Amino acid sequence: MISSNTAPQAAPKKVVLAYSGGLDTSIILKWLQTEYDCEVITFTADLGQGEELEPARAKAEMLGIKPENIHIEDLREEFVRDYVFPMFRANAQYEGLYLLGTSIARPLISKRLVEIAAQHGADAVSHGATGKGNDQVRFELAAYALNPEIVVIAPWREWDLGSRTKLLEFAEQNQIPIAKDKRGEAPFSVDANLLHTSSEGKVLEDPAEDAPDYVYQRSVHPEDAPDTPEYIEIEFEKGDPVAINGEKMSPATILTELNEYGRKHGIGRLDLVEGRYVGMKSRGIYETPGGTILLDAHRGIESITMDRGAMHLKDELMPKYAELIYNGYWFSPEREMLQAAIDLSQEHVTGTVRMKLYKGLARVVGRWSDHSLYSEEHVTFEEDMGAYDQTDAAGFIQLNALRLKLIAMRNKRVK
Amino acid sequence: MISSNTAPQAAPKKVVLAYSGGLDTSIILKWLQTEYDCEVITFTADLGQGEELEPARAKAEMLGIKPENIHIEDLREEFVRDYVFPMFRANAQYEGLYLLGTSIARPLISKRLVEIAAQHGADAVSHGATGKGNDQVRFELAAYALNPEIVVIAPWREWDLGSRTKLLEFAEQNQIPIAKDKRGEAPFSVDANLLHTSSEGKVLEDPAEDAPDYVYQRSVHPEDAPDTPEYIEIEFEKGDPVAINGEKMSPATILTELNEYGRKHGIGRLDLVEGRYVGMKSRGIYETPGGTILLDAHRGIESITMDRGAMHLKDELMPKYAELIYNGYWFSPEREMLQAAIDLSQEHVTGTVRMKLYKGLARVVGRWSDHSLYSEEHVTFEEDMGAYDQTDAAGFIQLNALRLKLIAMRNKRVK
Amino acid sequence: MISSNTAPQAAPKKVVLAYSGGLDTSIILKWLQTEYDCEVITFTADLGQGEELEPARAKAEMLGIKPENIHIEDLREEFVRDYVFPMFRANAQYEGLYLLGTSIARPLISKRLVEIAAQHGADAVSHGATGKGNDQVRFELAAYALNPEIVVIAPWREWDLGSRTKLLEFAEQNQIPIAKDKRGEAPFSVDANLLHTSSEGKVLEDPAEDAPDYVYQRSVHPEDAPDTPEYIEIEFEKGDPVAINGEKMSPATILTELNEYGRKHGIGRLDLVEGRYVGMKSRGIYETPGGTILLDAHRGIESITMDRGAMHLKDELMPKYAELIYNGYWFSPEREMLQAAIDLSQEHVTGTVRMKLYKGLARVVGRWSDHSLYSEEHVTFEEDMGAYDQTDAAGFIQLNALRLKLIAMRNKRVK
Amino acid sequence: MISSNTAPQAAPKKVVLAYSGGLDTSIILKWLQTEYDCEVITFTADLGQGEELEPARAKAEMLGIKPENIHIEDLREEFVRDYVFPMFRANAQYEGLYLLGTSIARPLISKRLVEIAAQHGADAVSHGATGKGNDQVRFELAAYALNPEIVVIAPWREWDLGSRTKLLEFAEQNQIPIAKDKRGEAPFSVDANLLHTSSEGKVLEDPAEDAPDYVYQRSVHPEDAPDTPEYIEIEFEKGDPVAINGEKMSPATILTELNEYGRKHGIGRLDLVEGRYVGMKSRGIYETPGGTILLDAHRGIESITMDRGAMHLKDELMPKYAELIYNGYWFSPEREMLQAAIDLSQEHVTGTVRMKLYKGLARVVGRWSDHSLYSEEHVTFEEDMGAYDQTDAAGFIQLNALRLKLIAMRNKRVK
């Protein structure tokens, strides 16, 4: 039976926790043990956030987690192949600009939490997202969509450890080691994975103020980027990148590589105020070096291989698709419907794009494909040998104009 | 009565010609006189293309046009105020990227052609657009929408002067002076106005090949732009820019100024393959220096002053709106309906955006407004004094999850 | 300051209650007095539900409400003019079928609640909607949109009077008179106003079972309707009906009249399972006699007066518009944006429609208008005297086919 | 090479003609032989139009067509299975009402024309649609999409046999037998197939006038339908009907059966003015007896088996989907994208609907399914045993209201 999980009737016995190994999720781990008196299973995933995972194992063990209850997984290939690339097929940008780097990682984490829960017979999962953000929604909608009976524990919505001081006290009381640099408050909050790094809060809370330089961690400042442009060629197959400069690579490798190009040239920085699903606006600094290159390159290869009708439909569907991902509806029938339409449109999105990278900017400067719909024969300013009969245009215009003429006649008549 | 204009029944007696003063439209002028034996009225407009207009007067007179039949007008303010700015309120981008610089100029030219025709009692208008492009459609749909009885003469679809050689022969036979640099073929074709310059054809016809440097005429190469970023503040009122760095300016002046900033920093270059309304794909090089800054700045001010619901609706409507303008339906009821919705959304889009301009890139780095919806009180990582109750999020998630849970239960049951 | 109203910090001192005079809202009235120890102001509106309002005054006085705190208003004209008709301009149908009769009444009630609260200096409003339905959402979103500082008290979500027995006990303990027919449980729940009557719950909860005949209260059974069809002519101005059979009437009068026609002919019954905003599906029996006639008639007059481009855009926007109203977002910027677009489309929706009413069915059988876009001259099978040149169609088809041909060539090449 | 087919360069040698055996297409047959001096192959298809096909064979032979060049095919099952049912999955209605009965038949005819052309090595196809209607566009877009090199001959746009008199003269001169009832002009024009019968033109050209009774040929007048309602149960699997009253049937059989029910009860008549793709409005009388029942039944089974998110997306996509079919873009990538999304949504649209048929009206009165998402447990007015926590609604409303509150605060502040 589905029951409302707001106030779980029976206290969960086993909980799978999304565990980073950091101070906050270590406190959650301890809090779950003490508050719920339950067995905790930790799940630590490498989604390309750029941190060692093994310390998380040691820390979990130190906090009393049984070795068989510690899960550490490298999900980078799955993340890029099954989440990032499908999303880029849509050219998804939330509110016109945001490449959804955080949003797209949540469903995969929830999927693994739920799967590990099934494996251990656990009745609950837990995450460290706060009650003001979108991530709690994304984690939980995904979890419920995959297992309607799972209980989700969101400690930040439940406990009374709302301030830094209380958290540190709790850590000390529970022998949770506190790294020196975690004593003070971080000047802003960070989320990272292979697609992006986002920073928000504290020093970034005034949207009128420029973000301080030190916020950017994933890319050089455009001013410090090389003074000479670099050109790369990205090869696509059915909408996904498969090679750079002729070298075939796996999905995670290719995104890693693009990140490196983007980092070097200061590409992919975004300073954005966005509308959160939970109702308020927030300001974030996003760095999506490889993704920014990928978006432009993908549009570039689509431009010669995808028909106008398909492309315009796709463009109309995109904002809704991006909104669904942002709001946490990856595992929803409507996202899957849109994905089916989008994926079909990519069947011929195969070919190569040449990009110029320079001082923060990635620009398409050439594209070619065996699947090209571009017909020099039709478009040429030169004699086209009968490929296109210009007089056809007269009839085309007349019939398209007919309804406009009828309106104009009517308006003249009745005004 | 509306009649089909494909083969105008009665030959027109008076024709208003969109006349640039250049070789091609001078040939059209002469051809109209000889082919149709009609009185020609010339209309030459300054839309900010950066050319002197007075030589067009002299040339028209030389070709036998009566002084009272020569119309030369500065339409820059009207163009920016009534066409460019309304379009930018929508953040319109065709196929995700193109800022519609050519498309948006056509309706205004047609409007004036039709108005001047009415003033002179002329029964036809004429333009110099070819039969393969979008511009013929835009000119003619606009003309028919404004006067359903007007006849449109499109010489490029009618005459047999299809090659350069024939054109030059015709010019020589008719004493039309040919500038020395017009003897040879231009290496590509150019259209320009205050919003943008587009280049296409000939050397640009292979989309695999980089555009040669000399194609870009409106902006410095990013590599040659200043090594130091420049910051500007753009002030908006109800969605339109009204001041730069605190100085109020008219619409055309502000766009001219933004163009200057863009030009200097190499901003607004676009190398695009696009789907034409007439069915084939074409490749264009666009330079929209001021417009590119304006688009980002406008999104920036919207980001703090426009509600999420309004913005997402606007984003969903945008591709259709852009398509309508691209295809020539500015004067259509559906474009006007969308405009009504978009304009309403701009009522509070008032405030200031701070932009960083550097080496081809314009980025928002700050924004503020009395109309801001951003609430530090709600979003803060600090204690929010009760502005937001985090436990509300639990109910929010539960109810949003309910349908997903019901699906999951069903799918488990029937599979 | 906006504060979260889930747990109102300071107990409200004065509350405006949406009061029907019935048992349930009388219990709420008493409960508010005792639970919150606050002054209660009652608001009773005539939206055409077909009940006497004066008994509500007597009842309120009996329950101790001061005469100056009793508001009884006839809102029928405002309801139809400012809510029902604007919605019908959109041909709004939720999930393809539901005419939104309940949804559209809520915003007006909330608007008056908030206005009366302002007038009395009241800090809260209260309603009798349950915690499972859409109405709570509609009441509250509207109230918060109009006054962000208002507190909303929803007793059904707060009290422990969840069962019929407890309610009756409370009524007895508090000397609230209980009509004899209210002792037992009603076999289903009803909401009514000038637009519709909805019935749901209890005997209707199994969607496999036909609704019992006695559920329908607003229309005769089609089987009992007259055996002879009746024809009426409805005249529209700018999208709104203004006369029936040549007789001009006010908005509420015209809807009342259409209801009478619909009732007599058994028109407007709907047995629907719909997706609620709060996540579950529910089954309702709707009777919308006049509205069903109006919808078809409105489509009929649009069919000759509205251009295809406008109509298709409107049709695409409609589902979103209907969803917004259903979900309670009448007072939202996105509903207002859509309304602006829709209203603009109605400028020429003026003319007359002839309807045939017979045994449950309302069908358009004729329509005429000075604003008609229908051109017999163009469409005729007879010789059209040059109004339309059939050879134009060849060019029209060729250019529309071009992209499809290019796709076909490509697909042949690469497969 | 694709060439413009407006004026086919080389005269076609072999033409496949869509041949009904009637007078008009017999004249076309002869005209093709004489005008183009080409070999004609006839294709006569049974799409359920209710006419014998064998007379077409005799007539073709009489007109000199070689037996091996005569193709007569029963396409009813393919038509319903691959065209009608996929379209009904979308609940497609053009301009809100039209079930697209003519539009959906054209692509299949073109597909067979092109396939037969390939089989015979023919270089052209030909059809009997006029130059004012939509059908020419549908035939030709489909043909070009399937074979970009095919030539299409549309005699009605080419010849000078524009009047009835000239046609009859041509027939007499060419020994084409003229049935007695074809001497005079038909009072209106008819198209029929298994899905619908449409009538238009002549006596129907004034949209203010009721259609004469004799126009309706496919259904009894509602007034003459049985005085007692009839109930049927339609079973669906994955969105398609598969059985009536428990009896499994093939696609064409089930539609035939539904037509019989509809005919008997006077269901599915529509008197519509619609906007043609070629620009003018036209008035048609449509009879879609089985399809009208099917549409309502399909919505009925969707209402309990399809999630709200999927359904609302589908409703938003429908107008565009219907427009594409109406305009002739069945074989376009964008129709296929939409179909992919729609088909995915039908995976669980399995179950049974009970319909009441009476005097022109088909109404859903019950529906049940193993795949149902309807949860009595959640929706019940009774105690729900914890399935739904009503207090969740408070948080749900608060967070959904937050943005509206922020708008209201802002508007108060700046006004």
Automatic annotation (TrEMBL), chains A, B, C, D:
This is Argininosuccinate synthase. Keywords: Amino-acid biosynthesis, Arginine biosynthesis, ATP-binding, Cytoplasm, Ligase, Nucleotide-binding. Pathway: Amino-acid biosynthesis; L-arginine biosynthesis; L-arginine from L-ornithine and carbamoyl phosphate: step 2/3. It comes from Aliiroseovarius halocynthiae. Homotetramer. ATP binds at A18, Y19, S20, G21, G22, L23, D24, T25, S26, A45, G128. Residues 14-177 form the Arginosuccinate synthase-like N-terminal domain. It is found in: Cytoplasm. GO terms for cellular component: cytoplasm. GO terms for molecular function: argininosuccinate synthase activity; ATP binding. L-aspartate binds at T130, N134, D135. Residues 188-406 form the Arginosuccinate synthase C-terminal domain. L-citrulline binds at Y98, S103, N134, R138, S189, S198, E274, Y286. It catalyses: L-citrulline + L-aspartate + ATP = 2-(N(omega)-L-arginino)succinate + AMP + diphosphate + H(+). Coiled coil: none annotated. Its EC number is 6.3.4.5. Its main location: cytoplasm. InterPro entries: Arginosuc_syn_C, Arginosuc_syn_N, Arginosuc_synth, Arginosuc_synth_CS, Arginosuc_synth_type_1_subfam, AS_cat/multimer_dom_body, Rossmann-like_a/b/a_fold. It comes from the Bacteria.
